[in-house]
Amino acid sequence: MVSQEERELHVLAVDDSPVDRALISKLLRSSKFRVTSVDSAQRALELLDLESNVNMIFTDYSMPEMTGYDLLKRVKGSSELKKIPVVIMSSENVPNRICSCLEEGAEDFLIKPVRRDDVSRLCNRVLKC
Amino acid sequence: MDYVHLRRQAASLRKGLFDQGYLDEQFYQLEDLQDDASPNFVEEVVTLFFRDSARLMANIDQALDKCVKDFNKLDVYMQQLKGSCTSIGASRMKTECTAFRECCRDENIEGCMRSFQKIKREHSVLRQKLESYFQLLRQAGPVECATRPNK
């Protein structure tokens, strides 16, 4: 028998801002996802190493030490992780940055503040939910 | 206790926050996310905001105190603060953050300091008003806390 936890899609939210972390987590939970949130790309990689059931990653772009772009490259460069869709979020609309992320394999690049519609649209498209 | 009166006061305070430009449309998004699973979501996020913004502002204060001004560092801190302001709809603070960042780009330290004083004032006023608002909501009880003002 499959548990509810196993039925729910699992999204990893990565953001160094506690405010934005709370917001994106709530947005995703409202869309019926199970959410794990971490405050750095490094912690995200540690979690991805431990958990094999992450269905999608939402990450902030600008984070100290390791950016969301760095995290994206690590995920897409890993044979175990590369199939996980990665969405980048940023408060700044920088065309070069957006292009680089999309070229590196990001599913989408969202300008903050992220809205409920953004999450629904993406998840429908990417996860067919 | 006159709960109707308290709710009216809360509604009036809230309307004032929008009418006077302290808050913008993003605050509605927070309210829309509040539900039975997270009945105090708005207040929790606002509390997080004031805690985090106080930390960021202390960092900026320290950086401004230094003899050699690192405009890149100041801009990074202010970008973070502005981001948080945007996320909760703190419109007037966000405007002042933008002004500060422009001063950083111009390496205008006096401009940065003036702008930062404005940010501190806006932060303080917003904090007082939102604390009063949430206090009124708590006193008024758990009936639906916020409704959109008539447009």
Automatic annotation (TrEMBL), chain A:
It comes from the Eukaryota. GO terms for biological process: cytokinin-activated signaling pathway; phosphorelay signal transduction system. The keyword Transcription does not apply. The modification 4-aspartylphosphate is found at D60. Signal peptide: none annotated. CDD domains: REC_typeA_ARR. Keywords: Phosphoprotein, Two-component regulatory system. Residues 10-127 form the Response regulatory domain. The keyword Phosphoprotein applies. InterPro entries: ARR-like, CheY-like_superfamily, Sig_transdc_resp-reg_receiver. This is Two-component response regulator-like protein. It comes from Rhynchospora pubera.
Automatic annotation (TrEMBL), chain B:
It holds the Pfam family Hpt. GO terms for molecular function: histidine phosphotransfer kinase activity; protein histidine kinase binding. Residues 44-128 form the HPt domain. This is Histidine-containing phosphotransfer protein. Keywords: Cytokinin signaling pathway, Two-component regulatory system. PANTHER family: HISTIDINE-CONTAINING PHOSPHOTRANSFER PROTEIN 4, PHOSPHORELAY INTERMEDIATE PROTEIN YPD1. It comes from the Eukaryota. Histidine-containing phosphotransfer domain (HPt) contains an active histidine that mediates the phosphotransfer. It comes from Rhynchospora pubera. One of its GO terms (cellular component) is nucleus.
